[in-house]
TrEMBL record:
One of its GO terms (cellular component) is plasma membrane. Keywords: Cell membrane, Membrane, Transmembrane, Transmembrane helix. Pfam families: Transgly_assoc (PF04226). The chain crosses the membrane at residues 28-46, 53-74. InterPro entries: Transgly_assoc. Belongs to the UPF0410 family. Its main location: membrane. It is found in: Cell membrane. This is Transglycosylase. It is a multi-pass membrane protein. It comes from Alishewanella jeotgali KCTC 22429. The lineage of its organism: Bacteria, Pseudomonadati, Pseudomonadota, Gammaproteobacteria, Alteromonadales.
Length: 80
């Protein structure tokens, strides 16, 4: 059950990040991948800043922030 919740949070976070950064999502699989990678990145960023997020909403916020940062970094690499 935790794995399914992890995938759902990843999909929603990826979709939110896609809408924030480009104005559209990336499809279900693309959103899941962006959200999952973003959750790891967000967890590292929040940990480095000494922030902690608890619960479902905290996980979603952490994953979304990480996914936005990931998409921003990808856009910088694409421009170079």
């Amino acid at each position: 059950m935790n794995f399914i919740l992890f995938l759902i949070i990843g999909a929603v976070a990826g979709w939110l990040a896609g809408n924030i950064m480009k104005g559209r999502g990336f499809g279900v699989l693309g959103n899941i991948v962006v959200g999952i990678v973003g959750s790891f990145l967000g967890g590292m960023l929040f940990g480095a800043l000494g922030l902690k997020a608890f619960g479902l909403i905290g996980s979603l916020i952490t994953a979304t922030v990480g996914a936005v940062v990931l998409l921003y970094l990808i856009s910088l690499v694409k421009k170079a």
